[in-house]
């Protein structure tokens, strides 16, 4: 072999090994055989001086914890998971030994995504994948009353975390679609067959560019049948330049609020794709974590990082034409490989989107979070964020698992540092690493004294080309405190 | 002789590439068991700029949407060139997006993070 031929071969090897398009996806959920859930605190790494303990296990899709006035621990199970798996939503008390007792059960309308305890009642956000989202009030005896209903939650994203402030329940409401256009990806979620007329709803009037997207008509048997679909319109409905979409409340992709006793719903902020986490900082400001765009559907957006935002009254945050406060339209940074640059949908912006507090990992699914308020625990004032982890390949390809850990964020500088990760040569969920560590942290909550951080671990969610395959009875609650 | 040289060169570089891809790139505080603190203003500013522009695809310098940086042996000027001009699916960043000063500070941060 000549030196020249060897060099050519070498160049080929190097170029192939570093070519993004040639590489296969290596998401944390792409695990092949599903192992059983083993638990080992020794498989979790924390900064020096901290310890982690198991609080409860064998939960099915747990999403958030809260504490009553006496400091007792409660958890909600969602009752729904992507993959169209329906179970019973539950509010449960967890005793010191990790035993569970059911306080209340919900209907087949999960996922129950958020819970807070306030003035001797629980408030729960019911995701509403089947009948629309609800805000529920649950007494300590388990009586459920509805404060708000018919929220537009039957699409890709649901009614999310909630907080109580100044006599109002603030909650996040996700969008129906990935980037404003209903397409075949929404059929894969399962909802397009059920609700052919559903689409995103803006909170305020929007003037459209009239951009339409051609896709296979997944609602007919004919594989050659195509449809054109425009923004904020039902599948197969075209839009025209200058068309005005009238805004209304409740809308999708927003932070909304209702009075604690129910009543008129108000928009707080909008233009957020899936504002999942919601928390109040020690200075009283509200923050949200936004799950950003996926590389899927008729209008894929690539390389969009999840965002920690400060929630400001009346502000539009940029969805579906901005990400991280920057335009996705006609920008190579957000162009999905093998697709055209992302075309704009909105002719006139409601306002210039603000700057993010922090930009988190693409597809990290940065979800529930809380602020440290106690100097004894450390990192006082910083936001601790649970990263559920990527859902590749459904959300797009990743070269290595993203998320599956707890990070902390300095809200002044936007600097992100790992706080709780799994041991191993690579980052990833326990099922991927074949260890007993963290699987999919979905939320974190400090105890009332701020001395311990409770991590809600959703459990194993296998990802396949056909969709998610969640594993029941694999959810866990962990507790992190100073040694 | 030339044949042997070519084979040795190729084998060496392929081994280096495999090592580059496989070697551990984890650098976070829980992994290192010590806190990272920026040694000077350039590293501090570089960390902030990295968080704004790079972290989302290379979280903590590890692989994610993009490849790992922590174990990438390319010299900093090559990485700066790549940031400015892009390569493959990696986008380019103009001077308006990342200033010359910030670009150098990102290099300073990456070097400090690599040594951490």
UniProtKB/TrEMBL annotation, chain A:
Name this protein carries in UniProt: PQQ-dependent sugar dehydrogenase
Lineage: Bacteria, Pseudomonadati, Bacteroidota, Cytophagia, Cytophagales
PROSITE patterns to which the protein is assigned, alphabetical: PROKAR_LIPOPROTEIN (PS51257)
Segments crossing the lipid bilayer: none
Glucose/Sorbosone dehydrogenase domain residues: 263-331
From TrEMBL, chain B:
InterPro entries: Cyt_c-like_dom, Cyt_c-like_dom_sf
One Pfam family this sequence matches: Cytochrome_CBB3
UniProt key word Iron: yes
Name used for this protein in its record: Cytochrome c
SUPFAM superfamilies for the chain: Cytochrome c
Gene3D superfamilies with a match to the protein in the record: Cytochrome c-like domain
One function term, GO molecular function aspect: heme binding
Record carries keyword Metal-binding: yes
Domain Cytochrome c: 41-114
Listed PROSITE patterns: CYTC (PS51007)
Entry keyword set: Heme, Iron, Metal-binding
């Amino acid at each position: 072999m000549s030196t020249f031929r060897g060099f050519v071969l070498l160049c080929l090897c190097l170029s192939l090994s570093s070519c993004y398009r040639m590489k296969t996806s290596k998401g944390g959920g792409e695990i092949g055989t599903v192992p059983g859930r083993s638990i080992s605190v020794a498989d979790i790494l924390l900064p020096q001086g901290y310890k982690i303990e198991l609080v409860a296990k064998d939960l099915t899709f747990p999403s958030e914890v809260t504490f009553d006035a006496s400091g007792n621990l409660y958890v909600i199970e969602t009752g729904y998971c992507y993959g169209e798996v329906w179970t019973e939503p539950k509010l449960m008390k967890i005793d010191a030994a990790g035993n569970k007792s059911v306080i209340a059960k919900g209907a087949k309308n999960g996922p129950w995504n958020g819970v807070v305890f306030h003035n001797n009642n629980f408030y729960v956000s019911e995701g509403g994948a089947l009948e629309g989202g609800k805000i529920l009030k649950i007494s300590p005896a388990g009586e459920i009353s509805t404060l708000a209903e018919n929220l537009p939650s039957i699409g890709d994203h649901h009614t999310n975390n909630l907080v109580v402030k100044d006599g109002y329940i603030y909650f996040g409401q996700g969008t129906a679609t990935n980037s404003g256009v209903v397409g075949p990806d929404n059929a894969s979620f399962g909802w397009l067959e059920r609700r052919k007329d559903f689409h995103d709803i803006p909170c305020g009037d929007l003037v459209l560019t009239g951009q339409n997207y051609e896709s296979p008509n997944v609602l007919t048997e004919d594989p050659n049948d195509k449809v054109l679909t425009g923004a904020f319109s039902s599948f197969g409905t075209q839009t025209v330049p200058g068309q005005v979409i009238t805004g209304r409340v409740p809308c999708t992709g927003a932070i909304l609020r209702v009075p604690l006793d129910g009543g008129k719903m108000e928009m707080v902020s909008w233009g957020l794709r899936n504002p999942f986490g919601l928390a109040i900082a020690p200075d009283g400001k509200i923050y949200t974590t936004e799950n950003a765009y996926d590389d899927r559907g008729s209008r894929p957006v690539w390389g969009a990082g999840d965002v920690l935002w400060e929630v400001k009254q009346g502000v539009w945050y940029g969805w579906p034409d901005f990400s991280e406060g920057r335009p996705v339209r006609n920008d190579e940074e957000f162009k999905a490989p093998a697709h055209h640059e992302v075309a704009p949908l909105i002719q006139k912006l409601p306002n210039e989107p603000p700057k993010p507090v922090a930009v988190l990992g693409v597809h990290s699914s940065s979800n529930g979070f809380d602020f440290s308020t106690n100097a004894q625990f450390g990192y006082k004032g910083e936001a601790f964020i649970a990263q559920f982890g990527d859902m590749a390949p459904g959300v797009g390809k990743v070269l290595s698992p993203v998320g599956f850990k707890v990070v902390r964020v300095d809200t002044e500088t936007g600097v992100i540092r790992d706080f709780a990760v799994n041991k191993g040569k690579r980052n990833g969920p326990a099922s991927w690493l074949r260890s007993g560590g963290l699987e999919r942290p979905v939320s974190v909550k400090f105890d009332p004294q701020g001395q311990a951080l409770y991590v809600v671990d959703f459990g194993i969610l296998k990802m396949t080309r056909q969709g998610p395959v969640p594993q029941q009875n694999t959810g866990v609650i962990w507790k992190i405190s100073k040694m | 002789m030339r044949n042997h040289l070519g084979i040795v060169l190729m084998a060496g570089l392929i081994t280096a590439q495999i090592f580059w891809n496989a070697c551990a790139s984890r650098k976070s505080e829980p992994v290192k068991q010590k806190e990272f603190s920026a040694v000077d203003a350039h590293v501090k500013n570089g960390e902030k700029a990295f968080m704004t522009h790079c972290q989302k695809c290379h979280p903590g310098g590890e692989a994610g949407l993009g490849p790992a940086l922590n174990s990438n042996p390319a010299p900093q000027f090559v990485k700066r060139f790549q940031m400015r001009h892009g390569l493959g699916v990696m986008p380019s960043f103009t001077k308006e997006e990342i200033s010359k000063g910030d670009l150098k500070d990102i290099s300073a941060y990456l070097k400090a993070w690599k040594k951490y």
